[in-house]
Specification:
Layout lengths: L3 H13 L10 E4 L13 E7 L5 E6 L5 E7 L5 E3 L2 H6 E6 L2 E6 L8 E9 L2 E4 L3 E3 L3
Antiparallel strand pairs: 1-2, 2-7, 3-4, 3-8, 4-5, 6-7, 8-9, 8-10
Membrane topology: Single-pass type I membrane protein
Organism: Leucopsar rothschildi (Bali myna)
GO cellular component, one term: external side of plasma membrane
């Protein structure tokens, strides 16, 4: 009976902290080196590098702080866009464990931060935000 508190502690840690057993997820977003010099009409390509291939979401946080769902890309490259404008304004794909988002023609409405989000073991993992602003 002396091991009961230790067992409960291990179970509690397992439910609260899935990363302690090697079930973590690493997400990095890469962008072109000239992202600080964006121009209206420019093509912007973002890459989400992950250590897993389960599909990824791309989210845009605009200058007012509002989040906008852009697209979900499945591990088989199937895309689900948030609205009709998204499907014509953005391209999305994946290769291996990398998920790509392309803004075909950057506009002032596209300014903000871009996030790659993954669902892994019933938890959402967000990449660090990638800022994209006009000069």
């Amino acid at each position: 009976m002396d091991t009961s508190p230790a067992l409960l502690l291990l179970l509690a840690l397992g439910f609260c902290c899935p990363g302690i057993y090697g079930q973590s997820l690493e997400i990095r977003v890469r962008s072109p080196t000239d992202i600080t010099h964006l121009q209206v009409g420019q093509r912007l390509e973002l890459e989400c590098q992950t250590d897993n291939n389960r599909g990824a979401f791309w989210i845009h946080k605009d200058k007012r702080g509002t989040l906008h769902f852009i697209v979900f890309i499945s591990s088989t490259s199937r895309t689900t866009f948030g609205n009709r404008r998204s499907a014509t304004h953005f391209e999305a794909s994946n290769y291996n464990k990398n998920y790509y988002l392309v803004v075909k023609s950057f506009t002032p409405q596209d300014e903000g931060n871009y996030f790659c989000v993954m669902n892994f073991n019933q938890m959402l993992y967000f990449s660090p935000g990638q800022p994209a602003f006009l000069p």
